[in-house]
């Protein structure tokens, strides 16, 4: 091999190595392996995060910042999926919840946690938060599980009832939002959810939205684990 062929070979190897490194870096940055836990304060997000991560029920306090971690979803220690999943619990406090949008580019699925026992009373607040999520321009197509938590409470409503209450509330909300009555943005900036000619239904969204009941306190969260695993593996 003469010297110029040798130099060109080294140059080609270096170029390929750099290209592979850059592609890997970009690939990792856009890897969508994150599941977001969103919802109002006291709905049970941190309890769920800790239960998923450590399998135990831990006493929690109002969160002032996100909890996040990479861990393997398991059933009593038996892994349900090979790779660790990134889970982020975003505080429900009104002034902190906007942080959810930082994670949207890497989000595979959203778990919106609701306290089923206070849902009727808080329906307006819940609908406002859901509206902000679904109206976000990059949330379209992100599968969403509405986890109707606290099903152990005697006053808990069933998921189908919760769905109807929230559909009615979002229906009312989209009229006020798009007429600009209680929103500071110009009407053009506000996304209209659903079909203009029909009452709002979750099935009108581009996102796949499912409602399931659960109780973190009673350890009844299998349906959440299964949904995470299926969504992570691209089944849902
Ligand atoms: N009865 C009952 N209580 C629950 C359940 N899940 C959580 N809790 C309780 O609800 C309270 C609030 O739970 P957290 O997990 O701290 O709520 P959070 O959604 O993280 O609230 P923020 O951090 O303020 O956004 C705690 O006292 C939990 O023990 C459940 O399934 N049933
Ligand atoms: Mg919390």
From TrEMBL:
List localization entries.
Endoplasmic reticulum membrane
In terms of Pfam families, this protein maps to:
SRPRB
Q: Name one GO biological process term.
A: Golgi to plasma membrane protein transport
Where does the source fall among the domains of life?
Eukaryota
Q: Which SUPFAM superfamilies match?
A: P-loop containing nucleoside triphosphate hydrolases
InterPro entries in the record, alphabetically? Answer: P-loop_NTPase (IPR027417), Small_GTPase_ARF (IPR024156), SRP_receptor_beta_su (IPR019009)
According to Swiss-Prot or TrEMBL, what is its membrane topology? Answer: Single-pass membrane protein
Q: Which GO terms describe its cellular component?
A: endoplasmic reticulum membrane; Golgi apparatus
MF terms per GO, please?
Answer: GTP binding; GTPase activity
Chain segments annotated as coiled-coil in the UniProt record = none
Q: Which residues form the signal peptide?
A: none
Q: Which residues cross the membrane?
A: 6-26
Q: Which UniProt keywords apply?
A: Endoplasmic reticulum, GTP-binding, Hydrolase, Membrane, Nucleotide-binding, Receptor, Transmembrane, Transmembrane helix
Q: Would you identify the family this protein belongs to, as annotated?
A: Belongs to the SRP receptor beta subunit family.
Name it.
Answer: Signal recognition particle receptor subunit beta
Organism of provenance: Gigaspora margarita
């Amino acid at each position: 091999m003469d010297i110029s062929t040798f130099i060109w070979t080294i140059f080609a190897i270096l170029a390929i190595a750099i290209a592979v490194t850059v592609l890997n870096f970009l690939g990792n940055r856009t890897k969508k392996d994150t599941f977001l836990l969103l919802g109002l304060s006291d709905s049970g997000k941190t309890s769920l995060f800790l239960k998923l991560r450590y399998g135990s029920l831990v006493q929690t306090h109002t969160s002032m910042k996100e909890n996040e971690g990479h861990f393997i979803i398991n059933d009593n220690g038996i892994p349900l999926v090979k790779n660790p999943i990134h889970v982020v619990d975003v505080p429900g406090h009104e002034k902190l919840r906007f942080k959810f949008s930082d994670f949207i580019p890497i989000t595979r699925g959203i778990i919106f946690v609701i306290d089923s026992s206070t849902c009727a009373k808080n329906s307006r607040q819940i609908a406002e938060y859901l509206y902000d999520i679904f109206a976000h321009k990059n949330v379209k197509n992100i599968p969403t599980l509405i986890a109707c938590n606290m099903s152990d409470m005697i006053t808990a409503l069933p998921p189908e009832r919760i769905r109807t209450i929230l559909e009615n509330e979002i229906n009312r909300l989209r009229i006020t939002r798009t007429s600009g009555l209680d929103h500071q943005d110009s009407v053009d900036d506000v996304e209209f959810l659903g079909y203009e000619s029909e009452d709002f239904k979750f099935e009108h969204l581009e996102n796949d939205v499912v409602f399931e009941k659960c109780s973190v306190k009673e350890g009844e969260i299998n349906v959440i684990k299964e949904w995470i695993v299926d969504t992570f593996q691209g089944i849902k």
